[in-house]
């Protein structure tokens, strides 16, 4: 691009003006700028003119990062009439804290994590059908960061904060088929009731994923939905088509938060998990047969 600088002004050539008048080109420029700057540095793009505002707003809303308080505000704004904010989101990252609290207290926390996630799952299922990237990271709020009164005994504060896994199950179940980059990192803070099982929801997502990172408290072979047929002598037929043909990276972190008692455990033995366990065993046999032995 050519031009002359006069203070902060810039003189564009006719070819430059043609490019900048093209919506697609301008949106690509704004997207590249958004990818390499903070939200604060990107905001002046909204103030150039009405055209820039409309295009920059789409770019700004395409990649959203929310924490507990901002997630609460986001959920309230999406309930407003004619709100189209959620339709534009292509990347959603949740950086959330689960607070420790007094087990004997009947006072609800300011932002109960399970309620936030369940409300968000309804919005994702209804309005975020273009979502491509989803990331959930949960950490605990240190006791020292809590606003405790002088009459509160810190020894009564639970050493293991958590949130119901039912909210996580609902959230993963709400993700659209367009989502191909998934991160679920609860640090192990989700707590499972009898019969709750996240693995089938993971299995539903795997075939369409390109990148997947996982750290949860409970896991079993059902998170990989293997076909019944295999090259194993106990099964009929040959190897099937790849289960995850698009997958380029897979990370399963088995190290939970230091405040969690114990490590990753196996999911409850549900009747529907047993066939999957058998298929997992056959797949391991297949892998051993197809993997060259090192010498």
TrEMBL record:
Residues 271-295 are annotated as: Disordered. Residues 275-288 have a biased composition (Basic and acidic residues). It comes from the Eukaryota. This is F-box domain-containing protein. It comes from Ajellomyces capsulatus (strain H143) (Darling's disease fungus).
């Amino acid at each position: 691009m050519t031009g002359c600088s006069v203070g902060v002004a810039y003189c564009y050539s006719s070819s430059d003006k043609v490019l900048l008048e093209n919506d697609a080109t301008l949106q690509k420029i704004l997207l590249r700028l958004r990818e390499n700057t903070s939200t604060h540095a990107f905001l002046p793009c909204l103030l150039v003119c009405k055209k820039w505002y409309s295009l920059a707003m789409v770019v700004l809303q395409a990649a959203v990062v929310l924490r507990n308080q901002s997630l609460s505000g986001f959920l309230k704004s999406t309930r407003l009439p004619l709100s189209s904010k959620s339709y534009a989101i292509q990347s959603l990252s949740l950086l959330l804290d689960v607070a420790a609290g007094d087990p004997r207290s009947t006072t609800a926390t300011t932002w109960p994590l399970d309620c936030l996630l369940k409300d968000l799952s309804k919005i994702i299922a209804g309005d975020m059908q273009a979502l491509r990237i989803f990331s959930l990271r949960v950490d605990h709020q240190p006791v020292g960061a809590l606003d405790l009164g002088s009459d509160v005994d810190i020894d009564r504060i639970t050493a293991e904060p958590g949130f119901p896994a039912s909210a996580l199950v609902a959230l993963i179940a709400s993700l659209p088929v367009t989502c191909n980059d998934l991160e679920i990192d609860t640090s192990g803070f989700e707590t499972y009731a009898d019969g709750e099982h996240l693995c089938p929801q993971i299995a539903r997502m795997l075939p369409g994923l390109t990148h997947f990172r996982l750290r949860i408290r409970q896991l079993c072979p059902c998170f990989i939905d293997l076909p019944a047929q295999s090259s194993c002598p106990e099964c009929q037929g040959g190897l099937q088509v790849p289960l995850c043909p698009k997958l380029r990276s897979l990370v399963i972190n088995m190290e939970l938060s230091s405040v969690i008692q114990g490590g990753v455990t196996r999911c409850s033995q549900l009747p529907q998990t047993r066939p999957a366990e058998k298929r997992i065993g056959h797949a391991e046999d297949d892998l051993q047969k197809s993997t060259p032995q090192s010498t």
